[in-house]
């Protein structure tokens, strides 16, 4: 039976890599749903904690017992002799009710309280609850900040999710939990967490820019409405984010162009010196690339309509008064981004202002 399955998969891979990828992803999700390994999640909780142990990098863990909202955990490492012997190296207590983690290895009467990542703690408890109650992953919710937060360092991309790396496998388990509980509804405000702040010397996190593109496409987000996100990307000089939003159809306005221009002036005024007060290091600046991208797009905004022209209207409605006609190929200045109804306030080359639907605006 295994041989037949293998041959079938091989044939599929030869004829359709795309279908193979989709099937592999689906099978992996089903596998995780059926057998979520809580021990791996427990190990992640411990390794990311403040525990002091000479074997920290090699630590493995298992639950020894559960009683009165307390979980006793045995720490061990595999024997270096090559035999199937495990050497115990420590003990922990997880106090579920008080949300505390204690190291009792040296003194059970005077345990050492450990600091830990709250999202790791929550994910472990959810995993245990999942296995204990035999529920499905679709019924288990996880917040976006348990995937990405201000302290996240995620340099792998969505394309790396099938790699056999512990960190990535644990992340993918969380991602599937999140997507199962948020199959359609997605708060676009979550995306602000994905904006990097590398130019500033006090930044301690990094998230690969491909994740922004992933969630935009995953949830088919209306990029034109993500004004706050774009403002943050410009302010924090995340060129990758600005480029991703532009690639997905974002229309820049005059205010964003001016904002990037002012930021560029500030950058040049430093003459390569670090602004200690604002933690700004110009050697990592991306503002010149950001300004050039925005300026090029803005200066090249033109009207395109298959009828050869579009109407400049007095209000945000196809029923409002027509001010004038704008011919296809004619340059315009965008004053405001598209609103909820997808209308932009624009100015024509002869100074007339009015509203045009965003679908008629392109950057040539």
UniProtKB/TrEMBL annotation:
Gene3D superfamilies: SH3 Domains
Residue stretches making up the SH3b domain: 298-364
Any Pfam family the entry gives: SH3_3
PROSITE patterns registered for this protein in UniProt: PROKAR_LIPOPROTEIN (PS51257), SH3B (PS51781)
InterPro entries linked: SH3-like_bac-type
Protein name: SH3b domain-containing protein
Species of origin: Flavobacterium columnare (strain ATCC 49512 / CIP 103533 / TG 44/87)
């Amino acid at each position: 039976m295994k041989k037949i399955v293998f041959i079938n998969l091989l044939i599929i891979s030869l004829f359709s890599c795309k279908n193979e990828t989709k099937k592999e992803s689906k099978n992996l999700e089903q596998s995780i749903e059926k057998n979520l390994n809580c021990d791996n999640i427990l190990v992640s909780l411990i390794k990311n904690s403040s525990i002091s142990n000479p074997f920290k990098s090699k630590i493995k863990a298992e639950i020894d017992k559960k009683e009165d909202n307390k979980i006793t955990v045995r720490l061990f490492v595999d024997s270096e002799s090559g035999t199937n012997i495990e050497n115990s190296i420590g003990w922990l207590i997880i106090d579920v009710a008080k949300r505390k983690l204690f190291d009792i290895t040296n003194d059970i009467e005077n345990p050492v309280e450990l600091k830990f990542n709250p999202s790791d703690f929550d994910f472990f408890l959810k995993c245990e609850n999942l296995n204990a109650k035999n529920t499905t992953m679709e019924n288990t919710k996880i917040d976006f900040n348990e995937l990405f937060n201000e302290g996240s360092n995620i340099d792998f991309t969505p394309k790396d999710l099938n790699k056999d790396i512990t960190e990535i496998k644990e992340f993918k388990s969380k991602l599937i939990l999140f997507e199962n509980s948020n199959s359609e509804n997605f708060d676009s405000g979550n995306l602000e967490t994905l904006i990097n702040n590398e130019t500033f010397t006090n930044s301690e996190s990094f998230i690969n820019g491909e994740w922004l593109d992933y969630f935009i496409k995953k949830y088919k987000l209306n990029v034109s409405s993500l004004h706050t996100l774009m403002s943050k990307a410009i302010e924090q000089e995340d060129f990758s984010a600005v480029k991703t939003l532009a690639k997905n159809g974002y229309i820049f306005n005059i205010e964003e162009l001016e904002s990037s221009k002012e930021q560029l002036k500030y950058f040049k005024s430093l003459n390569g010196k670090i602004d200690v007060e604002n933690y700004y290091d110009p050697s990592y600046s991306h503002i010149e690339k950001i300004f050039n991208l925005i300026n090029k797009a803005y200066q090249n905004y033109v009207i395109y309509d298959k009828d050869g022209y579009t109407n400049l209207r007095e209000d945000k409605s196809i029923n409002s008064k027509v001010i004038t006609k704008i011919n296809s190929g004619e340059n315009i200045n965008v004053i405001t981004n598209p609103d909820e109804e997808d209308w932009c306030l624009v100015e024509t080359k002869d100074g007339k202002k009015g509203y045009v639907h965003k679908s008629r605006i392109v950057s040539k």
